Amino acid sequence: MLLLVLASITAIGILIDQWLLPTIVRQSDTITVQSVVRIDFEDAKQRLFDRGLQVMPPIEQFSSTIPMGQVMSQLPYAGANVNPGRRIYLTVSQGLEKIRVPVLEGLSIRDARLALFRTGLLLGNVEFEFNDSIGADKVLRQSTPSGANVTSGTTISVTASRGRSGILVPDVVGLSMSEAERALTESGLVLGTITATNSGTFSPNTVLKQNPVPDSSVAPGTYVHLTIVH
Questions:
Q1: Which of 80, 190, 200, 214: CA 20 to 30 A from 62?
Q2: pLDDT tens digits, residue range 111-167?
Q3: CB 185 within 8 A of CB 174
Q4: What is the side-by-side strand order in the sheet with 207-211?
Q5: What is the distance between the alpha carbons of residues 197 and 228, in angstroms, rounded to a whole number?
Q6: Is the pTM for the entire model greater than 0.85?
Q7: Which fold has domain 98-161?
């Protein structure tokens, strides 16, 4: 009976020594990786270092949801049991992706809109002003200069040309005096001096010449001088 008890105690001792204790030691030697997602990289690095883990240089990616400098993902994942000194790989947010603003000056409104759309930007307000050297519907200025770096989806407003600021002088040659005066008045111009000359071809009071010439760009209220048939 005593021998049986001694044998049992010996067997239990061997079981504890060869199975239970090594299991306890193995479990105590591992480290459970904690979650550091959405934590600033330097803080995350220190937390992992304090637990005996090694943090590798981060991988950086753009993100529309995670603020710049915060951890986006980690490997091994949170909750994994690893050996001390295990390398931990972190992906860190660079924030929103930056886009270089294209050159819009000189483009039509339609082409400017397309240029912005292709780069992930949007056309904002469009204002117009007269310009004697840039054709109508062409972009004169943009709210954000070309080459600037902005985030995706940024709105860029532009100022475009309305065309020449002056009034285009109507062609009144061949019209009667009364018709010419009406056309000038409706255009915002004023009938100037009238010179009469003889002509065997046209009827009396028909306009033969005008000054300024047709399609000239002039300021509102400009006098237009006529030569008519006597």
A1: 80
A2: 999 999 999 999 999 999 888 788 889 999 999 999 999 998 899 999 999 887 788
A3: no
A4: 190-197, 223-229, 207-211
A5: 6
A6: no
A7: Trypsin Inhibitor V; Chain A (3.30.10)
